[in-house]
Amino acid sequence: MWPYWLLLLGVSYAALSDSGSAHSRTVPARAGVGRLPWVIFAFVLTVFIGLRVEVGGDWDRYLVHLEMAGASSFTGLNNLKDPGYQLLNFLSSRAGLSIWGVNTACGLIVSLGLVIFCRSLPRPWLAAVIAVPYLIVVVAMGYSRQGVALGLVMIGFVALGQMQIRRFVAWVLLAAAFHKSAVVVLPLAILVAERRLLVFPFLLVIGAVAYLLFLDGKLGGLYRGYVVAEYQSAGALVRTLMNALPALIFLCCPGRFGLSHAQTRLWRWCAIGSLCLLALVIIIPATTAVDRIALFFIPMQLVVFSQLPGVFGKTPEIRKLLVVAVITYYALIQYVWLNYAIHVHAWLPYRNWLVERVFQSAV
Predict the structure, then answer these.
(1) In the chain, which residue ranges form alpha helices assigned H by DSSP?
(2) Fewest CB atoms within 10 Å of the CB: 29, 63, 155, 294?
(3) CA distance 341 to 213
């Protein structure tokens, strides 16, 4: 499991070396951070995610997707689940890149989405640390389709925080092409918009289009598969609690984060949504459905915990101590998951196609 720890250690070193926006919580630290380290980080993540070998609980299922898309015609892709993901399978199969082409494309999209989101925050490297144990290791490497959808939604969140409603909607629709569950964040456009009466008709049309493209004829199967069957996810309560904690912190003192009016509304509603999902996990037996939706609220952790040093640290020493505390917290999360998670055997040992080829060549 050492590759996972090496990844976390590298990003943690960058977070400890990054002073962040010590004097202003409203200004993203990206202005003082060179692009090259982030290009390297995105490349490493893409290789780490994309060229993994038999890592992730759904590995065999994704091989089936590849085979089905490869046997389908281009026009027939829409008849398969999640046409955006199936298009990647179709192109990779036709190019002879097999599962590596699909996973690398997915890894690139997730990496770019994460980098864009992190660089919109005052302490981008600390946000990246927060993303490693679950967003990257578990989601991006275990749920390829929803990982891509989350990466695209994160870009949408950056746009929505800047009141770019149309761009947000476009990114969410693109995300829904990879996993239809992404449509659950569309209502945020209305909740965040200042002129809601103007946005509502536009979003109503978009919602109808999204339904026809992604949900028409599929809602019954989703309801039976997730709700009636009462599918349960091991650890759903813990994962929703991970979102609920930063949600409570934010709701207690939103003004201290120095966000714009639109950003404050966005993350206030995300915080409320996180708490509602926690309540649903406790109340209803079909926890898998709630767990899948909760994935889109993981960015709440990045926003809140990455800014704790600036929000509560009055001196450089306290800010540094809070950075260490956040890193320790997420290192503990990774340790617990890698040692005690029910399905962790699917992630261990970590194998990488490129590393194995280089090693074989050297031998």
Answers:
(1) 2-17, 35-50, 59-71, 83-95, 98-118, 124-131, 141-142, 144-161, 165-176, 188-192, 196-210, 219-222, 236-252, 261-283, 287-294, 299-312, 316-340, 353-362
(2) 63
(3) 36
Q: How far apart are alpha carbons 134 and 128 in whole angstroms?
A: 11
CA 150 to CA 144: how far, in whole Å?
10
Smallest Cα–Cα separation from 184: which of 41, 88, 294? 294
Among candidate residues 241, 303, 247, the one with its CA nearest the CA of residue 270? 247
Mean pLDDT of 35-50: 96
- Is the pLDDT confidence value at 19 over 70? no
63-109 residue pLDDT tens: 998 998 888 877 677 667 788 999 999 999 999 999 999 999 999 99
> Beta-carbon neighbour count of residue 221 at 10 Å?
10
Encoded amino acid at 234, one letter: A
